[in-house]
Amino acid sequence: EIIAEGRVRVNGEVTTEMGVKVQPTDRVEVDGKPITPAGLVYILLNKPTDTITTADDEKGRQTVLDLVDLEGGEGDALFPVGRLDRNTTGALLLTTDGDLAHRLMHPRYGANKLYLVTTAQPITATQVEQLRDGVDLEDGPAKADQAGYVDDDRHKVALALHEGRNRQVRRMLEALGHEVIALERVGYAGLDLKGLRRGRWRRLKSHEVNMLRRSVKLKSIVF
User: Fold this and answer.
1) Is 85 a catalytic residue?
2) Distance in angstroms (rounded) separating the CA atoms of residues 162 and 57
3) Residue 94 and residue 201: Cα distance in Å, rounded?
4) Looking at residue 205, what DSSP letter applies?
5) Mean pLDDT for the stretch of residues 9-32
6) Three-state secondary-structure class, residue 191
7) What is the pLDDT of residue 43?
8) Inter-residue contact 96 to 79 (CB < 8 Å)
9) Dist CA 10 CA 20 (whole Å)
10) Exposed, middle or buried: residue 36 (CB in 10 Å: 0-12, 13-18, 19+)?
11) Separation between Cα atoms, residue 87 and residue 198, nearest integer Å
12) What are φ and ψ of residue 68, in 5° steps?
């Protein structure tokens, strides 16, 4: 919208064309003020309950970005990769790397996701098989890449998926007649929550960033 309104200048010239490529040496201005590209930031958050997975919320509710306190303008362009429901907890990646985020969310690359589900009623062995074989949802069949009990507790199942449909895990269990009382994403695209308490965050290490980029056919970054 800002571009279409003619508020952007590149090297002194107004541009209203979408997708114009700029070089690091170009001068880009918005409303007459020069802007500079944000550095690449990669954050892993252990999302708590009652938190919205958006950059801001019109109702004033707590968002995932409210939990990440970065100095200066480092977090200005930070955004969550994909979504977790308000009361779903666990691994959430936040970044300023648009190329990486786009590919991680694209079905072609299918980032692996590992969920821990707790239900009100016991899940039968037949239903675990159904989760592996496929469950019919309103937007088409959905199945887990892997599914199994956790510690032989029939109220707890671990599911591995590469799809990322809206509320997919909850809907799969609901389709089998189960009420989900807790849902945690314990792994995302090879990242886990080891040593990261609920509501806390950490920066990714350089090898983790490059592991993610290579997994979606992007070049590694030299740190």
Assistant:
1) yes
2) 28
3) 10
4) P
5) 90
6) strand
7) 97
8) yes
9) 9
10) exposed
11) 13
12) -105, 110
Q: What's the Cα-to-Cα distance from 19 to each of 98, 99, 103, rounded to whole Å?
A: 14, 14, 18
C-beta of residue 150 within 8 angstroms of C-beta of residue 182: no
Q: What is the DSSP letter of 177?
A: T
- For tokens 């200048």, what's the residue? 9
Structure tokens at 32: 């007459």
* Residue 46 β-bridge partners: 91
Residue with tokens 């892993």: 44
Extract the tokens encoding 182.
Answer: 């807790």
Q: Residue 182 and residue 107: Cα distance in Å, rounded? A: 26
pLDDT tens-digit profile of 124-166? 999 999 999 999 999 999 999 999 999 999 999 999 999 989 9
Catalytic residue, candidates 57, 85, 99, 153: 85
Q: Any residues with CB less than 8 A from the CB of 111 and at least 6 apart, and which?
A: 104, 105, 162, 164, 188, 189, 215, 216
From the number of C-beta atoms within 10 Å of its C-beta (0-12, 13-18, 19+), residue 159 rates as: buried
Q: Tokens 């809206």 belong to which residue? A: 166
Q: Which residues, 6 or more positions from 77, have their beta carbon under 8 angstroms from its beta carbon?
A: 38, 41, 96
> Which of 1, 14, 2, 84 minimizes the C-alpha distance to 44?
84
